[in-house]
Design goal:
nine-stranded mixed sheet; alpha/beta; 18% helix; 17 strands
């Protein structure tokens, strides 16, 4: 399976640069995974596609302001650090620009010394392990100094940090937002509950591995970076109750999907657990737990587009994307949504 099989033409002006004022007013394309039939509506009308007894699964991770700008203490040269994964003893795996100047032993300073970091090791793909030192609470310092880690295709400044968070974000740890969830408002979630739909929460801290380009020609040769996930017992129970009752499990986003598929047994039963997942879902994969998916429009040749194609079929998905381009849908993180069922 060649990575070029997942390419499509996207005019640059269709890449959404700013979130809409009303989260739930984005457009929603519906895609029948069996027939490829496409429909068009507004996101808040997703309620019409949900059936009492369905279980909607959301990812309650919270994006941390993971982008830090500082200087090298010895030269004063500017440096950018992106926090990827918390290790132990205040050590984080990070992405550093420019990386060549950040050798082991390099000391970095942020916010006039409010936060300092020492590069302790260079690891795979040139990432750096940095040990931070500070007085006070790390999260509070990060909130003061850090910026939201918007994807590189978004060039407009973000006016409100909360617009790169879901309304149900709870647990700090993500380097990127689970963007399918950005369309939900608290009012819409209440409307969904009132219809008799169960809402279950899982946690997957999104790493940049999800968004890394596939650099190999053969899709099967691509390796996903590990991401931490957790499913609490009462949430697993909600999901299992729906499955056992013959109802649908609908994943909000590829991150919720990857969490459920990582935790499910062959019968789609979910055990409460936590751990690390490197699951890579592409066509040929047999889904064990999820029946439907709410997602955004993804980058050409991306692992996310491959996951969606595994659920609905590559031909159906690429035809739907062609339709979305023709209908001037907004693409990527701040863009419109797709419901695949």
């Amino acid at each position: 399976m060649n990575v070029k099989d997942f390419d499509y033409e996207l005019p640059e002006e269709l890449i959404a640069q700013d979130p809409l004022d009303d989260r739930s007013s984005s457009r929603l394309m519906t895609l029948d995974k069996h027939t490829g039939a496409v429909g068009h509506k507004i996101f808040r009308d997703i309620v019409e596609d949900l059936i009492p007894g369905d279980c909607l699964v959301i990812n309650n991770t919270k994006v941390i302001p993971a982008r830090l700008f500082g200087v090298k203490e010895d030269t004063g040269a500017m440096i950018e650090v992106l926090l990827l994964k918390r290790k132990e003893n205040n050590i984080w795996e990070t992405l550093v620009k420019p990386g060549k100047k950040a050798k082991a032993g390099t000391v970095l300073s942020f916010g006039d010394g409010l936060l300092k970091g020492t590069v302790v090791e260079v690891v795979e793909e040139g990432n750096r392990l940095i040990q931070f030192s500070y007085d006070g609470i790390f999260e509070e310092i990060l909130d003061e100094l850090g910026q939201m880690p918007l994807p590189p295709y978004i060039t407009h400044p973000l006016k409100d940090k909360n617009r790169y968070q879901t309304v149900y974000a709870k647990y700090d740890g993500s380097a990127a937002a689970p963007t399918a969830g950005l369309h939900f408002t608290k009012e819409l979630l209440e409307e969904i509950k009132a219809k008799g739909v169960e809402i279950a929460s899982v946690t997957l801290h999104v790493g940049l591995g999800t968004f890394r380009p596939v650099k190999v020609e053969n899709v099967q040769d691509h390796h996903m970076h590990s991401e931490f996930f957790r499913i609490e017992p009462e949430e697993a129970e909600k999901i299992n109750r729906a499955k056992e009752g013959g109802h649908r499990v609908i994943s909000v986003g590829t991150t919720s999907c990857r969490t459920l598929e990582s935790a499910a047994d062959e019968n789609g039963h979910i055990d409460a657990k936590s751990g690390w997942t490197e699951i890579f879902i592409y066509p040929g994969y047999t889904f064990k737990c999820i029946d439907a998916l709410i997602t955004n429009f993804h980058l050409p040749q991306s692992t996310l587009l491959m996951l969606v194609s595994a659920l609905a079929g590559r031909e159906h998905v690429l035809a739907a994307y062609e339709e979305a381009v023709k209908e001037r849908y907004r693409f990527f993180s701040f863009g419109d949504a797709m419901y695949i069922g």
